[in-house]
TrEMBL record:
Name the UniProt record assigns to this protein: BRISC and BRCA1-A complex member 1
CDD domains: vWA_BABAM1
InterPro entries referenced in this protein's UniProt entry, alphabetically: BABAM1 (IPR026126)
Top-level taxon of the source organism: Eukaryota
GO cellular component: BRCA1-A complex; BRISC complex; nuclear body
Signal sequence annotation: none
Gene Ontology biological process: double-strand break repair; mitotic G2 DNA damage checkpoint signaling; positive regulation of DNA repair
Length: 212
């Protein structure tokens, strides 16, 4: 994607309601999305693998790549005009490896080329600020105060950060978390109204759902 100054995207504008809850004051639109996946490829020496119910074990990067691949294919079926980009985090740096494209085969091929980068013992922290500086250069955003043109796309950055052996390794939760991100940001309900709990109609009518 070229760095066009005329690029127009949606910057959410919010206002508080009576309960001091932030509400979006922009109507839902079926706009194409530009989704950037920022994948942490750093692997700790003592990292905990994902263990499936079958007994099979997989390293975190393998599971991350598979869930992102599923996300891309499903999202593209919903709307083919969505575009995806890839950025990777190394132990102490980052690299933009695939520009925004709606070619699912191309983005998945780049995804499969990502390999583990063993984390150096002295690299326990990471400055994420440099990532957003790079994103801003690749994707200049319009001036919210002066740009009144209708948006032509929505930008999302999905950061998958995994460099801690304390991070849970539940494969089902990983897939569930990625599935929750499939919904279009301008079309899904406010987070306070979202419930992912499966219950009987009689139970849902009597008790509020808290598992969000």
């Amino acid at each position: 994607m070229s760095n066009s100054e005329s690029a127009s995207c949606f910057i959410p504008d919010f206002k508080p309601d009576e309960d001091n809850t932030l509400l979006r004051n922009f109507s839902g639109m079926n706009l194409p999305e530009k989704i950037l996946f920022v994948i942490d490829k750093a692997r700790e020496r003592n990292c905990t693998p994902f263990k499936l119910s079958t007994g099979a074990s997989y390293m975190p990067l393998f599971m991350i790549k598979r869930t992102i691949e599923n996300f891309i294919y499903i999202k593209s079926v919903i709307q083919h005009s969505h575009e995806y980009g890839l950025m990777i985090l190394n132990s102490h740096s980052f690299q933009w490896i695939c520009d925004f494209t709606n070619n699912t085969n191309s983005i998945v091929n780049h995804l499969n080329l990502i390999n583990d980068d063993f984390l150096e013992e002295d690299k326990k922290t990471y400055d994420l600020g440099q990532i957003f500086d790079e994103i801003e250069q690749k994707l200049p955003l319009p001036n919210k105060k002066s740009d009144t043109a209708d948006p032509t796309f929505v930008v999302r950055v999905i950061l998958v950060y995994s460099r801690s052996n304390k991070v849970g390794r539940n494969a089902a939760k990983l897939h569930d978390s990625m599935a929750k991100l499939l919904a279009h940001p301008l079309q899904r309900p406010p987070q306070k109204d979202v419930c992912y709990t499966i219950c009987l109609p009689s139970q849902c009518s009597q008790e509020p759902c808290n598992n969000v």
